[in-house]
Specification:
heterodimer; A: 278 residues; mainly alpha; MetI-like fold; two-stranded antiparallel sheet; 11 helices; 1% strand; globular; B: 253 residues; alpha/beta; Rossmann fold; 6-stranded mixed beta sheet; 10 strands
Chain lengths: 278, 253
């Protein structure tokens, strides 16, 4: 017997609703659990003091700085190369062997576990280039790791810019470069920014690749060549070694808040830029 | 400038995409300071013809052009021609009003700015262009608001103003009113009638009636070939070719 369209309609509605509700409930449950356990740990001392006694007491200030520095280095290095590659793929070359090779490489890179990046970074940056376990080694490793994300999201958003925008710009006597900078890039920016936000999230949350390349030193990083520990690594070590679950939850909660804040601020900047035109 | 001197002379033009010939052996003269309507059924190669006049067809990698297009006696496909310079002289308005996602002012200033004009000159050019396109009074108080907030008809007049700000010699319009209501269409036709004093205008009208209303001269094109051309009264009252009269009277197309 076949179900009537009305019944299938109802079943579909229930299934779609329940999957959405289930996902949201699980996500919110995790976030709230961490925030409820972690937020009481967060106070002025926690934010401003460096960890003492392996992290059992004191704060986590050096790991906050480490996280921000490492992410900044990675994003500053990866963004221009990623966007450049995306523009090359979309505007400067025709579909063919080279574009397929680049795209295939980027997609393969995106699927590699981060520990493999860590190993590569350890062998190449830390050992071979003698950069040591440092902010720079870690940042460079993370830059390679997020490159595929930036290339792919940028490429997609550049492709989504209407062809007419380009034609208008050319028809007004624009050169290719002027067309890209004045018509294509501004329209693609929200999508490109989205890729960068995703990448920031991955950098902030990364542990395996960071332990191998940036080390896990607890002191405040003094330069790009100092070793450092990120919040995610700190959290991992605190929990894994059973040093302090309270501090671990505090770190995790702050990590969530930090990612949230980065998202909000970045979106605000992009929206302010985009609002001029829409 | 002498009256009825040919601004543009197209000589034996062939235009092909890959294997497909879009324009075949087309010869046409366009007089200065007149409106020429190039009309015919869809897919006749009219858009291709317009795009070959400002070399926008160059953007398609598989496109091939043979023959000559002379503007003021100079072949625009000669190797020493500066294409961006040419596109400034031969402005284009597209069938869909395409404002870029920026303010009204920035849209119109785009061309002059890309031409490296001074800031003072740009401001002046924007105002002149808006006045010529009869849009100034409607937008002068909100030049910094996004162009996308204008109505469709206003957006298309903005596109015309954007072309005028280039201070071009020739204006190409590819079915500029096909997405607009009759009132907006009438406004655009009025401005075009005034603009022809200063410019050479080639329009692909979206209806035969628009060609008859607006143009001084008309050219009927079918399957990439010119069927006939002449003063607009002559073409519509007494076409030489049966295909022209069939199309005008609505027997096909």
């Amino acid at each position: 017997m076949k179900a009537s369209p009305k019944t299938t309609q109802r079943i579909a509605k229930v299934l779609i609703w329940s999957s959405a509700v289930l996902v949201i409930v699980i996500l919110l449950a995790i976030i709230f659990y961490i925030l409820i356990k972690g937020i009481p740990q967060i106070n002025w001392q926690f934010l401003t003091e460096i960890p003492r006694n392996m992290g059992r007491s004191g704060g986590i200030s050096s790991t906050i700085v480490g996280t921000l520095l490492l992410t900044l280095v990675a994003v500053i290095i990866a963004t221009p190369f990623g966007i450049g590659t995306a523009f090359y793929l979309t505007e400067y070359t025709r579909e063919g062997r080279i574009t397929r090779i680049i795209r295939f490489s980027a997609e393969s890179l995106a699927g590699i576990p981060s520990i493999v990046y860590g190993l590569f970074g350890y062998i190449f940056f830390v050992t071979y280039l003698h950069l040591g376990g440092s902010v720079l080694s870690g940042g460079l490793t993370l830059a390679i790791m997020i490159l595929p994300t930036i290339i792919r999201t940028s490429e997609e958003s550049i492709r989504a810019v209407p062809r007419l925008y380009r034609e208008v710009c050319f028809s007004l006597g624009g050169t290719k470069w002027q067309t890209i900078t004045r018509a294509v890039f501004p329209s693609a920016l929200p999508g490109i920014a989205n890729g960068i936000i995703l990448s920031i999230g991955r950098c902030v949350a990364e542990t395996a690749a960071v332990i191998l390349t940036a080390g896990s030193a607890l002191r405040m990083p003094g330069s790009l060549l100092s070793p450092t520990r990120t919040m995610a690594v700190h959290f991992y070590i605190l929990a894994r070694e059973g040093i302090s679950m309270e501090k671990a939850f505090g770190t995790a909660a702050l990590l969530i808040i930090l990612i949230f804040l980065i998202n909000v601020v970045f979106n605000m900047l992009v929206n302010r830029y985009v609002a001029k035109g829409r | 400038m002498e009256m009825n001197q040919s601004k543009i002379v197209i000589k034996n033009l062939n235009f092909s995409y890959k294997e497909k010939l879009a324009i075949r052996g087309l010869n046409l003269e366009v007089p200065a300071n007149e409106i020429l309507a190039v009309f015919g059924p869809a897919n006749s190669g009219i858009t291709t013809l317009l795009r070959s006049l400002n070399r926008l067809g160059d953007l398609i990698p598989e496109a091939r052009v043979e023959g000559e297009i002379l503007i003021d006696g100079k072949n625009i496909y000669a190797p020493d021609v500066n294409v961006t310079e040419l596109r400034r002289r031969v402005g284009m308005v597209f069938d869909v009003p395409t404002t870029l996602p920026m303010s009204i002012f920035d849209n119109i200033a785009l061309g002059p700015r890309m031409g490296k004009r001074s800031k003072v000159a740009v401001t002046e050019m924007v105002e002149n262009a808006l006045r010529m396109a009869a849009l100034w009074d409607e937008v002068k108080d909100r030049l910094n608001t996004p162009a996308a907030r204008l109505s469709g008809g206003q957006q298309q007049r903005l596109c015309i103003a954007r072309v005028l700000a280039l201070e071009p010699e020739v204006i190409l319009l590819d079915r500029p009113c096909s997405a607009l209501d009759p009132v907006s269409t009438a406004k655009i036709e009025d401005s075009l009638r005034e603009l022809k004093e200063h410019f050479t205008i080639i329009i692909a009208p979206h209806t035969v009636q628009q060609a008859a209303r607006l143009a001084d001269k008309a050219a009927f094109i079918l399957m990439g070939s010119l069927i006939e051309t002449g003063p607009v009264e002559k073409i519509f009252a007494d076409p030489k070719d049966k295909r022209t009269s069939d199309y005008i009277t609505g027997r096909f197309g």
